[in-house]
Design goal:
Length: 285
């Protein structure tokens, strides 16, 4: 009941607490900015990254560039962006996201000790856990000047531990081999992926792998790859700095005509028509 009430009373806000923060800050732990349920930009870019850690939670489907690849983010996805990495993320219809920027000497050590994945997408059961700790950090930073660095570090460590437990629990009941192959597909959707290759990764025959994957995820392996590619193309088309043939290549297609045919079959519009539906004055190429 308490957690449900916490979610029901969450409001949208953005609070700035400490300027000039970076990872090498001598404080044990410090928070720079906290944002809650703020709408995403269609495409947010910070090519040089930030000097602080960005802990971001995405409520609806979105995308993020991770290690130079555009990764599809499922609803309730968490990404821990380390300092200095290029930032590029967004989503259709500007879905909400929450985040905090933090720095200090303990951040990297806590994440390493707990084993929470860094610079990878993690899907969680719900936003309850993230918002509970976000609210606690925000309350500490607003109520005390300066906030207690040890208290904030303990909150962050407890959040990391609980989050890692939640992400491990969410994968139980599903064959770990199938989860690993699905993760590979989501990260390498633009590569040349064949059914025999995927079956070998799962250490199963092609027929057994196909049946098991569809039974578990309710879609065939090849259709899942296609969906990943089309979802990435949908997001990338909202980046008007990319030409359509560049979107096709980023999505895994060297042949722009084949890409356009598949995109229209999947979305009901050609890539150009889809782009112009979102912005009538978008460039033609």
């Amino acid at each position: 009941m308490a957690e449900t009430l916490c979610i029901m009373t969450v409001r949208t806000f953005r609070h700035v607490f400490q300027e000039g923060l970076d990872e090498q800050n001598t404080a044990e732990f410090a928070v720079n900015v906290i944002g809650c349920r703020r709408p995403l930009a269609h495409v947010y870019r910070a090519p040089e990254g930030r000097p602080v850690w960005l802990i971001a939670f995405f409520y609806a489907a979105a995308f993020a560039e991770i290690e130079r690849r555009v990764v599809r983010l499922a609803p309730n996805s968490l990404v821990v962006f380390p300092p200095g990495v290029p930032l590029r993320y967004g989503g259709p219809n500007r879905p909400a996201h929450s985040w905090w920027n933090c720095g200090g000497v303990r951040v990297r050590g806590i994440l390493g000790e707990v084993g929470l994945p860094v610079y990878r997408a993690v899907t969680l059961p719900s936003p309850i856990l993230f918002e509970r700790y976000l609210a606690a950090m925000d309350a500490e930073c607003r109520s005390h000047t300066p906030p207690d660095a040890r208290f904030l570090a303990n909150l962050f460590e407890n959040w990391a531990i609980e989050t890692d437990r939640a992400r491990r629990a969410s994968g139980r009941g599903v064959d770990s081999r199938l989860l690993a192959v699905r993760e590979y597909m989501e990260e390498h959707y633009a590569a040349r992926i064949t059914l025999p290759d995927l079956a070998r990764r799962a250490r199963l025959s092609v027929s057994r792998f196909s049946v098991a994957f569809k039974s578990c995820f309710h879609v065939s392996p090849i259709e899942y790859v296609l969906r990943c590619r089309m979802k990435q193309a949908e997001y990338l088309l909202q980046d008007y700095g990319l030409k359509i043939h560049e979107v096709a290549r980023e999505a895994g297609y060297d042949d722009i005509y084949h890409f356009s045919k598949l995109f229209k079959k999947h979305h009901g519009l050609s890539p150009l028509a889809y782009r112009r539906r979102h912005d009538p004055v978008a460039p033609a190429q």
